[in-house]
# Entry
Amino acid sequence: MPSLEERVAYLEGRFGDHAAGMDGLRNGQTETRADLRNGLSDVRQELSEFRADTHRRFDELRGEVVDLRNETNRRFDEVRGEVVDLRNETNRRFETLDGKMDRHFTWLVGIQVAVLVAVVGTLVGSYYR
# Structure
């Protein structure tokens, strides 16, 4: 059986090993915390850059949407103008055609009245002969 001094020396050696191991753990923990802080600051920086880039892209997209909306409105205005022009041209043509039909109808009625007068005149002339 070991003596008391040997046992105490053994325990002191083991305690020294444990203390050295604890110091190593503390140092490792400190280094890990420093690494995490550095990593988190890097992540924060990248996230900040990502946000700035996202905001910039959304601003560009908003500008493009506004441009597209303006272009669409301009084109719709052009189409409306063309439809109005087409409607006016169609109305003008119908008015021209309506006038032409009125003239033809007047001629047709005139010819029919003339034929009727000629027939009646012929019948009256043959009756008195």
User: Anything to note?
Assistant: The mean pLDDT is 88. The chain has one helix and no strands. The chain has one domain: 1-100. The longest helix spans residues 4-127.
